[in-house]
Design brief:
Elements (H helix, E strand, L loop, with lengths): L1 E5 L5 E7 L2 E8 L3 H5 L1 H12 L8 E7 L3 H18 L3 E5 H7 L7 E7 L4 E10 L2 E4 L4 E4 H10 L4 E5 L3 H9 L5 E5 L4 H13 L30
């Protein structure tokens, strides 16, 4: 049995899978309670699936890019579970997990999720015989630059992920027949299946090397000076 955790992008979700079956999956949109009570929600997930978390062999967590708060909470929770049960934990690129959901289609995938205003996190992957291969590192593109690049693509490519409505309209205005849009949220079950694949392939899953990966460093201001009064 394998566990997947996504707090990188909404809708947030957690899932348990075994072999080819999704035992249970919970998703939530716009709720801070879900993130704050993540461990409790995972326990509820196990109850829903009528299984013990002690049977989890490995887990995968979307480690970024994505929400600063969501990444910190989910990665810490994943590492804690891995230490308690002495199991591997795999930090997975959010963009790779997104593309993994389309691996049954033999094609090139341009995985996209929003970054800062007028920017998108992106990465390219190819799928052959249901095996996903990375073509680029994760990167950030300004929307205008991305539209210029997309206009030039001369082979069929699938844009998969979370594309804001305004940007989607701009992409459609390019009238490039080679661009195919797949609007798909990231399901935690995809992460759980990735954990299963990594475990079967005997990939190392050391919690010491699992960290949030931000496309931009958090904007943390200087601490305010304390004013001491009598």
């Amino acid at each position: 049995m394998f566990l997947g955790i996504n707090l990188a992008i909404e809708p947030y979700s957690i899932a348990l899978i075994k072999n080819t079956d999704i035992l249970a999956e919970i998703s939530c949109q716009g709720s801070y309670d879900f993130t704050e009570d993540l461990i409790l929600e995972i326990e509820n997930l196990a109850k829903k699936a009528h299984v013990s978390l002690r049977k989890v062999k490995a887990l995968a967590v979307a480690s970024g890019p994505g929400s600063y708060t969501g990444l910190r909470i989910s990665v810490v929770a994943a590492k804690t579970i891995a230490q308690v049960f002495k199991i591997p934990v795999y930090g997975v690129s959010t963009l790779e997990a997104m593309a993994y959901q389309g691996k049954d289609m033999e094609s090139i995938f341009f995985s996209l999720i929003p970054a800062r205003k007028n920017e998108m996190n992106a990465a390219m992957f190819s799928s052959v015989d249901q095996q996903l291969s990375r073509l680029t590192d994760d990167f950030v593109w300004d929307n205008e630059i991305m539209l210029q690049k997309l206009k030039q693509f001369q082979k069929t490519i699938y844009l998969i992920g979370l594309i804001p409505p305004l940007l989607e309209k701009q992409i459609l205005k390019l009238k490039n027949p080679n661009l195919q849009i797949i609007k798909k949220p990231l399901a935690a079950s995809a992460l759980a299946f990735m954990a299963q694949d990594n475990f079967k392939n005997k990939q190392e899953g050391n919690y010491l090397y699992t960290h949030p990966r931000y496309s931009h460093q958090p904007n943390i201001g200087k601490p305010k000076k304390k004013v001491i009064t009598d």
